[in-house]
Amino acid sequence: MIQEGLLWFDDDPARATGDKIARAAQRYRQKYGHSPDVCYVHPAHLKEGVLGMGLSEEIKVLPAKSVLPHHFWLGVLGQKEGRGGRRASGAHAG
User: Fold this and answer.
1) Phi/psi at 62 (nearest 5 deg)?
2) Helices in 1-94 by DSSP H: which ranges?
3) What is the pLDDT of residue 2?
4) For residue 73, what is the enclosing H or E element?
């Protein structure tokens, strides 16, 4: 699991999980200047068939029981400590 990244919250029932991840990835790029390549989600979100799906940003979606429902943990796999990133920051989708 990634050590640094962006924790995104979106509980809008009208928005598909893939759209939520795309919005979170957009915020990640704004904040860190590069795209994430992985997104961990609560296993309940995988009912929509997003497991391992490739979004336009080539983000691998993986299940993680440690991620709460409606939360999306984005980052870069294999990211080393001190790479210039910051510890997880929360963002609330409005």
Assistant:
1) -130, 150
2) 17-32
3) 63
4) strand 71-75
Give the residue from 19, 2, 20 showing the smallest Cα distance to 81: 2
CA distance 28 to 14: 22
Q: What's the Rg (C-alpha) of the chain?
A: 12
pLDDT (0 to 100) of residue 45:
83
Q: Is the pLDDT of residue 40 over 70?
A: yes
Enter the tokens of residue 83: 């790479």
pTM to 2 decimal places? 0.73
**3-state class (DSSP) for residue 47:** helix
The mean of the pLDDT values for the chain is: 79
The tokens 């510890």 sit on which residue?
87
- In 4-90, where does DSSP find H-type helix? 17-32
CA 36: distance to chain centroid? Answer: 8
